[in-house]
Amino acid sequence: MSKADLSKQPAQVSAMFDDVSTHYDRTNNVLSVGNALLWRVATTNAVGPKPGERILDLAAGTGTSSASLAKTGAHVVAADFSPGMIEVGKRQQAGNQNVEFVVADGMNLPFENDEFDAVTISFGLRNIVEPKVALAELFRVTKPGGRIVICEFSTPPIAPIRIGYSAYLQRVMPALAKLASSNPAAYLYLADSIKDWPNQSTLSKWLRETGFANVGYRNLTAGIVALHRGTKPHPATVSATASPPPESFDADVTQ
Predict the structure, then answer these.
(1) Which residues are annotated as a binding site for S-adenosyl-L-methionine?
(2) Residue-wise pLDDT tens digits, 112-132
(3) What is the role of this chain (predicted)?
């Protein structure tokens, strides 16, 4: 069984996700205690896909999130570094003309500058060896005026919840992974990567440093997950990124 470590070597990460691709969606539903659907709805609403838009869904896995985005008539490019995930996604979304699957490296995207109306990544940024490089690539391929939405595990701000969540990652999740996953060792990496990931304010800072404006975040499930979003400014308004905007926005689901 394949398990990556926190060095996040691309070959290790890709092989690990190839191993879990067959039962990936089922395992996510089990480990999230059903919250995965709510997080996907929140992400889709935050992206706000419109008919005819071109949207990049990076780290799309099997394309479940991409299919949700495509329901409005947007054309969604589902990109992932794992060929195994892409193959499962192609089978699951066969016949969906609005979802296109591409094997892609998040640090070297095979797309043109200013190509997408919106870009999004769910639970994948922390698996990239250089997340700031990936953010720069997402900025590059976003059209001026386009938007970014990131859904990622984060840091609960309330201490008792933070302590309880840490206990869940250390004790409960490994037991559930043994029951639900074809590669439970991979989910030990998942727990490690969550604990190692920076908090909401740090990711907001990264987005601003990349060049995104109107950056904000909203906690979901008491901060276990956070939605971040921003916009790529038009060249004439780049100076708007000089003063940090409020780090909050209204999503369409309750925390």
Answers:
(1) 62, 80, 105-106, 122
(2) 999 999 999 999 999 899 999
(3) Methyltransferase required for the conversion of demethylmenaquinol (DMKH2) to menaquinol (MKH2).
